[in-house]
Amino acid sequence: xxxxISAATFGLAFGLLAPLAAQADVKTEHFTHFGGVLGMGASDxxxxxxxxxxxxxxxxxIKFTGSVLGALQRMASHGDKGSLSVDIxxxxxxxxxxxxxxxxxxxxxxxxxxxxxxxxxKSGKAKENDTKITKNEVTVKDTGQKKTINGWAxxxxxxxxxxxxxxxxxxxxxxxxxxxxxxNADDAKLQKVREEQLAYSKAYLKLMHLPTNPDELKxxxxxxxxxxxxxxxxxxxxxxxxxxxxxxxxxxxxxSGDKKEDADSSGEDKQETMxxxxxxxxxxKDESKGSDDGMTIVFTxxxxxxxxxxxxxxxxxxxxxxxxxxx
Length: 327
Prior knowledge:
Blueprint: H1 9-15, E1 26-34, E2 43-52, E3 55-64, H2 67-77, E4 83-90, E5 95-100, E6 105-109, H3 115-130, E7 131-149, E8 152-167, E9 173-185, H4 188-208, H5 214-217, H6 231-239, E10 245-257, H7 266-281, E11 296-309, E12 325-326
Parallel strand pairs: 6-12
Antiparallel strand pairs: 1-2, 1-11, 2-3, 3-4, 4-5, 5-6, 7-8, 8-9, 9-10, 10-11
């Protein structure tokens, strides 16, 4: 099932508690191992993000670790460096620029168009009519555990997000449990990073007419979610108990649903087929195995903050290079 509670909400929630200070440029580097969806598309991702006021540049190099996708990627890129993608988000100009460094080309479009509200409203309403959330619970546990990661003194928190749904037409029930194991650090430089990301997020949300920002929630393990209305107060109250900036995040998402009695085990056959495909396209057949409580592990991921720099950035990072041509 697909959770309809947005992912970038966590970072924003923590940031709202912090006062804003003088502007500084920010560069962060992360490494992520993504286990793939049911093992398919497993990959290693190196990310470098640059932030200067209302301008943001995201550079991501992805290397597929499965035998098939990995081989295809190496053939396409003539090597083992992975595929580089570069996006420049200009909130100040309502512009998203996508660079293709291998071809030295670019494309651009508005970050926000007014018609997006109408389109998303129509599709969202149809989905809500079919699915009812019967349980939506977030818990935060401060384990008291401490350790040093990449030079930062960290403190552990575990977030568990439990969502149960029922299809109003078929009465099928679904369950989803996402667990995020966070190791956060209280550090002056990381606090500065958080303040700058908050300032950018506030401007982004205003431009996009959104209650939550996906970029911010990704820092805390939530990839796709949106939360608003009556649920939001309790949701954010739990998040406010978490202190510091995330240095390491391990995420596990498990899901299960009703089985049709007349399906003649087709659901089980489908799951076994997906697992077999996962072992072919993924890096590890265990990525798609079932959990101890009988639920299916949909995906796992591990992300680490590798470095932070708050020195001055070249403004050219947020512009189209002079030798690039438009697609």
